[in-house]
Structures are given as structure tokens and as C-alpha cells.
């Protein structure tokens, strides 16, 4: 059994975040809790063709061995964009033999809102899905951290509204169309798991597609 390293708030490990879920590529680099660099590219249909060039420009090849962990947005989002990001991140983590954290796109956006929320506040986040559905998740803000109360799932609008009423959620935030800008928050969430001693193997990272355009609708 592998014993995790002792936890330390002075952690100086280097992490890289890869966010492709909405077609906007977002990359972020962080050492410990301190941001090092971040950049976004609105690539959309050019995501697959340009991703590796952007990675190379953002982090020179000689620095890749310095990485201690990777983080990737696992969805929801564009089916193709999520898949591209997940395949790339899994391949990199496998080659570098480092942990890979797969983090919810909705959680990344919720993390970006923490400073606007009160301690203990319930925070609901939604994203449009196909055929009138939506993705939704609910979090509670505890200090500067998110506690997940309801994981990402598909909702019919009426069911979501009833769920919000039952939970007495006062504020619901819809995601913007492009979320690569939340790559730093993706890295923050991964780093919090890293501090707890989590070291997920790359093979455990799975996408959350929710619903693809060809999925049958079930009630």
C-alpha cells in the first residue's frame, strides 16, 4: 500500500490544468496555491488541430518533467470538446506517470463565484443541455471551499425548479458559453484534493458527457 505524503499548506508541487469542455481552451499553471500562468484560446472547431501547439507554447517541453499532477475538466460541455481534453490529459498523465484529477465543469464555474457568496450559502449552477434539458449541480460554500450537495446530472426544467424550491436555493447561476477562463479554478479544486493526499491514477479519470446529441431521451 502506498502511503500518501504528509499534508502541508506550504505545498510547492507544480500542477497544470487543461480545460476544453466548451471549445475555449484554458490552460493554467500553479505551484502550490500560487498561480504561475494562465491563458485562453477560443478555438472551437480548431481545438483538435491547435491544442498541442498551444500546449507547447504555454509550457516548453523541457518543463513537462517538472509537473507533479494534471487536472482536466471532465464535463459537462460539448461532447467532442470534453472528449478531446480527456484523451489528451489521460495520455499526458500516463506518459509523465503523474496523477490526473478529473473535475466537474460546473464545479469549476461555481469555484469562480465563491468570493461573491456568503459563508454557508447554497450555490446552484446550471448549463444548457440538448432538447430542453439542463445540467445542474448544487454546492455549499464553506469558507473558501465548495461542498457538493448534488452532483452533476440532467434535469427537466420543471423538475429543477421544484428541486430548487425544496432545497430553498435563492441564487442560481447559469454558465457562460465559454468556460476555459475557469482553468485556474479547475487547478484550485485539484490542488485541494492534492493537499488531502489524493493521487488518482490517470485511468480513473472519466468524462461526464451527460447527454450526447444522439442519446435517446428516457424519462
TrEMBL record:
InterPro entries: ATPase_NBD, Gcp-like_dom, T6A_TsaB. SUPFAM superfamilies: Actin-like ATPase domain (SSF53067). Residues 64-161 form the Gcp-like domain. NCBIfam families: T6A_YeaZ (TIGR03725). This is tRNA (Adenosine(37)-N6)-threonylcarbamoyltransferase complex dimerization subunit type 1 TsaB.
Amino acid at each position: 500500500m502506498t502511503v500518501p505524503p504528509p499534508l502541508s499548506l506550504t505545498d510547492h508541487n507544480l500542477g497544470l490544468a487543461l480545460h476544453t469542455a466548451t471549445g475555449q481552451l484554458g490552460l493554467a499553471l500553479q505551484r502550490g496555491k500560487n498561480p504561475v500562468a494562465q491563458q485562453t484560446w477560443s478555438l472551437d472547431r480548431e481545438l483538435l488541430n491547435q491544442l498541442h501547439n498551444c500546449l507547447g507554447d504555454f509550457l516548453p517541453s523541457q518543463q513537462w518533467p517538472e509537473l507533479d499532477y494534471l487536472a482536466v475538466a471532465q464535463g459537462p460541455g460539448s461532447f467532442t470538446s470534453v472528449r478531446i481534453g480527456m484523451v489528451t490529459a489521460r495520455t499526458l498523465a500516463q506518459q509523465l506517470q503523474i496523477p490526473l484529477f478529473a473535475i466537474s465543469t460546473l464545479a469549476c464555474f461555481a469555484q469562480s463565484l465563491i468570493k461573491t457568496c456568503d459563508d454557508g450559502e447554497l450555490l446552484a449552477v446550471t448549463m444548457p443541455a440538448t432538447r430542453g434539458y439542463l445540467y445542474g449541480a448544487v454546492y455549499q460554500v464553506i469558507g473558501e471551499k465548495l461542498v457538493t450537495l448534488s452532483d452533476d446530472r440532467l434535469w427537466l426544467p420543471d423538475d429543477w425548479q421544484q428541486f430548487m424550491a425544496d432545497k430553498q436555493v435563492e441564487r442560481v447561476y447559469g454558465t457562460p458559453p465559454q468556460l476555459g477562463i475557469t482553468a485556474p479554478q479547475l487547478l484550485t479544486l485539484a490542488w485541494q484534493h492534492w493537499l488531502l493526499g489524493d493521487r488518482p491514477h490517470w485511468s480513473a479519470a472519466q468524462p461526464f458527457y451527460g447527454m450526447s446529441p444522439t442519446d435517446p431521451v428516457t424519462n
